[in-house]
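TOKENISED FOLD:
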Amino acid sequence: MSKKKEEKIDLLDDLLAIEGDEPVELLIGGHELHIRRAHTGAQIVEWQAIELSRVEANTPILSNDGLSEHEKIEQLADNGLKYLSDMLNFMCVAPTAPEDIQAVCDLLSSSTNQVFNTVAARIFFESGLFDEDGNHVPFQLSSSTKASTAD
């Protein structure tokens, strides 16, 4: 009697991984960033930890009635810059230099909110983690995945 070889399924990869193209090179203010476009399931979990830390950092600021609106805006902007830095460090691959990541963060932090948000949204879109509407791509289940998880 022969035993059938058991198939092992990595559920994180099966459910969350993004099969993307080769990294894309983005030039921002003369600084090169090489953005990863393919992500393993484990990398998606790591990315979600970054997202969660952003929410956890912003919640007490937003709910603090002792802060003026100006103070809230300043603290949220600081958190936004930390989030951008965390995301760039997560998404960038070699040969991106850490100095280029810092320079892009510095450049965007000295710009208007509109410039910051527009450039950040494009970087995130290029990573394959977000669609053009800002939705998290790994959590948009395909119809075949929906059918198989509904059973």
Remarks:
- Residues 69-91 form the longest helix (23 residues).
